[in-house]
Amino acid sequence: MPKGVFVNIVGCILTMFLSLFCWTQLTAEEEGPEVYQQEVQQMTTLECARCHYAVFADIRDTGGAHQIPCRECHETFHTYRPGKNWKDVVPDCTTCHDEQHGEDFPDCLRCHENAHAPSHSLNVKKMAEDCTACHTDQATEAKQHPSGHTETPCVKCHYDSHGFIATCTECHKEPHTPFVDDATCIACHPPHSPLEVSYSANTANSICAGCHDDVSAKLLSSDKGHALLQCVFCHADKHRFVPTCQHCHHAGPHSKEMVGQFKGCQDCHGDAHALILQEGQKPVPGAAGNVQTASPS
Ligand code: HEC
Ligand code: HEC
Ligand code: HEC
Ligand code: HEC
Ligand code: HEC
Ligand code: HEC
Ligand code: HEC
Ligand code: HEC
Ligand code: HEC
Ligand code: HEC
Ligand code: HEC
Ligand code: HEC
């Protein structure tokens, strides 16, 4: 017999005595033998609630779609006695529901702990091993992109109730960029594969500078055309993407033969973030307007 039943026995017996006492006080004198000529009405939900107040309150407060009359589920009741199987005296979920989540989940009350409040009582901690059975996409994503989050159990972030989502700063107290809201972090970090960083074309250089201060400083102190560009104009879409010079400039204003004699454009132009245009070499006609694509494709 479940523990709650014992608790209820005490409460209910007390209530029974109290209410019987009240009823006799109020009605005993009026009642004659004609009482036995009256129709006996079935108990209503409110009458059940007189003794089973805790159950009534559960359904009222958190029952959700189970706010249906007691008797629709409990067609028979008060039939329990020692030796009888509890399962045979209380309704089976599958009298009204199918095997909602397939054959692998027959034990409804393991997760829906309170039959009277089945959604509210979903116990996330006890479901910790079951998340991936229903959410294969997130589990696969985390496995395919190893990160600190792959090692973090689902229920560390989704802990409070089913569908609850923790905020980034619960664990990352001082992120590298000021916290605005989770959506801003998630815009760069997919939560189940946080190292697959991608970002939009309007990401501010200051965010990159938080970690790449050396590069940022170089760019800021340059007086060449690149200094006017956003980091993400060149390093577009995905973190660690590095474009080639040719991606935007092709051979630049130079002939392929000339360029072919050098290891790369950087031999003469130096660092992409601190360009140099060597003095004393022949000016190249039409040089300025040679950018071929606005952004790498
Ligand atoms: C949606 C169906 C449903 C409704 C509606 C429902 N019950 Fe139940 N009830 C159950 C099921 C299933 C169990 C068995 C739960 C278990 O084994 O833990 C149960 C168990 C019980 C128990 C014994 C265990 C306990 O929680 O104390 C009592 C008493 C009870 N119900 C009373 C009521 C009363 C009173 C109402 C109306 C106020 C009601 N039930 C409404 C399905 C229902
Ligand atoms: C006068 C008090 C009283 C009323 C009214 C009452 N019960 Fe009970 N009920 C009890 C007691 C006492 C028990 C045994 C202890 C327990 O399981 O909580 C019990 C047990 C139960 C159980 C669990 C075991 C079993 O034998 O079925 C269910 C289900 C139940 N009642 C449903 C109902 C429903 C439904 C109603 C209204 C139609 C209702 N009860 C009305 C006192 C009452
Ligand atoms: C007498 C019929 C009946 C029984 C027995 C019953 N349910 Fe329900 N249940 C319903 C109805 C009706 C709804 C609302 C419509 C729907 O979702 O199908 C519902 C809805 C639900 C919901 C959605 C709740 C919400 O608030 O959205 C869950 C979860 C659920 N039931 C679980 C269970 C579990 C677990 C059991 C067994 C412990 C059970 N039900 C037993 C009739 C029943
Ligand atoms: C492993 C845990 C687990 C088990 C076991 C389980 N459920 Fe659920 N159930 C859930 C979760 C999580 C949800 C919420 C997600 C959803 O809406 O499907 C849910 C939702 C539901 C819903 C609401 C569906 C909807 O569309 O609103 C019903 C009805 C339901 N379960 C019935 C059952 C029944 C009946 C059983 C037993 C045959 C059962 N569950 C077994 C975890 C479980
Ligand atoms: C029985 C299948 C089932 C199990 C087990 C299950 N879920 Fe779910 N979960 C669902 C379904 C179905 C939905 C979609 C419900 C909806 O769209 O409202 C959902 C939705 C979610 C959501 C998204 C909620 C939102 O607002 O978008 C999160 C987060 C989630 N589940 C996490 C978990 C975690 C963590 C676990 C393990 C503790 C888990 N789930 C166990 C079926 C399940
Ligand atoms: C480090 C924290 C963290 C961990 C660990 C984590 N999640 Fe999430 N999860 C999130 C965040 C944040 C969101 C919200 C995503 C959004 O709003 O776009 C989310 C969303 C979800 C959703 C809703 C659908 C979606 O993809 O947006 C599901 C389902 C989900 N997670 C399941 C899981 C499962 C299953 C695991 C374990 C394999 C898991 N999560 C591990 C943080 C986490
Ligand atoms: C429950 C705690 C928790 C929450 C919530 C959480 N993280 Fe993490 N995160 C971790 C842990 C643990 C690591 C492993 C590295 C570490 O020690 O920080 C990590 C690592 C990371 C990493 C680096 C990955 C690696 O492998 O080095 C990124 C990026 C990250 N988190 C982003 C986020 C973002 C964005 C959010 C919010 C959507 C978030 N985290 C929410 C626990 C969490
Ligand atoms: C513009 C994109 C962007 C935004 C917005 C962003 N991050 Fe990052 N984050 C990155 C990049 C890039 C890395 C470095 C990843 C790597 O090492 O490959 C990183 C690394 C991290 C790490 C790993 C450890 C560290 O600090 O070096 C954590 C944790 C992290 N981010 C959390 C957050 C959180 C929390 C937020 C929201 C406040 C956030 N990030 C917002 C781009 C971003
Ligand atoms: C939280 C710290 C962090 C932030 C923010 C960050 N990065 Fe990084 N970035 C790193 C780390 C760590 C590396 C790896 C460095 C290494 O391997 O030496 C890296 C590497 C790079 C690389 C070089 C890849 C290679 O193969 O050499 C580029 C390009 C880059 N980041 C661009 C950016 C851009 C653009 C931004 C802003 C959108 C940014 N990063 C924001 C931490 C960060
Ligand atoms: C994502 C595109 C992109 C990439 C990659 C790129 N550039 Fe540029 N570059 C530009 C743009 C845009 C300008 C400015 C053009 C203008 O002002 O007409 C520019 C200007 C220049 C200039 C003229 C600077 C000045 O101040 O006059 C030189 C030289 C140059 N790039 C060389 C390079 C070299 C060398 C590389 C590789 C290390 C490179 N670029 C990579 C887009 C790019
Ligand atoms: C004009 C395009 C362009 C702009 C703007 C640009 N980069 Fe780069 N970046 C490159 C190219 C091309 C390379 C490869 C350099 C090489 O191979 O010498 C590179 C290399 C890097 C590297 C790896 C090597 C190194 O020098 O450390 C990092 C990190 C980096 N960039 C970060 C940034 C950041 C942060 C910004 C903004 C502050 C930025 N970049 C702006 C084109 C650009
Ligand atoms: C032998 C050295 C050398 C090599 C190698 C070289 N350049 Fe140049 N580049 C120059 C010189 C010199 C100028 C012209 C400077 C001036 O006109 O003030 C120039 C000009 C440019 C300009 C136009 C600058 C402006 O002011 O408009 C671009 C763009 C450019 N180069 C791109 C490239 C690219 C892309 C590569 C590699 C494919 C490359 N260069 C290789 C020396 C070189």
Structure explained in plain terms:
5% of the residues are buried. Helix 2 packs across helix 3 (53-62). The two termini are 68 Å apart. The protein is rod-shaped. The chain is mainly α and 297 residues long. Among the domains are: 3-16 and 46-120, no CATH class; 131-188, no CATH class. The longest helix has 25 residues, at 3-27. It is built from 16 helices and no strands. It binds heme C (HEC) (12 copies). One heme C (HEC) binds next to helix 10.
- Largest β-sheet summary: none
Strand content: under 5%
What is the N-to-C succession of helices and strands? Answer: HHHHHHHHHHHHHHHH
User: Looking at the structure, what is the overall shape?
Assistant: rod-shaped
- Which structural class do the helices and strands define? mainly alpha
Give the mean pLDDT.
87
How do the strands and helices of this protein lay out in sequence?
Layout: H1 3-27, H2 45-51, H3 53-62, H4 70-73, H5 86-89, H6 108-111, H7 131-134, H8 136-144, H9 154-157, H10 182-188, H11 205-209, H12 213-220, H13 231-234, H14 245-249, H15 256-260, H16 266-269
Helix pairs in contact: 2-3
At a glance:
It is built from 16 helices and no strands.
Question: Which features would summarize this protein structure in a list?
Answer:
297 residues, mainly alpha, binds heme C
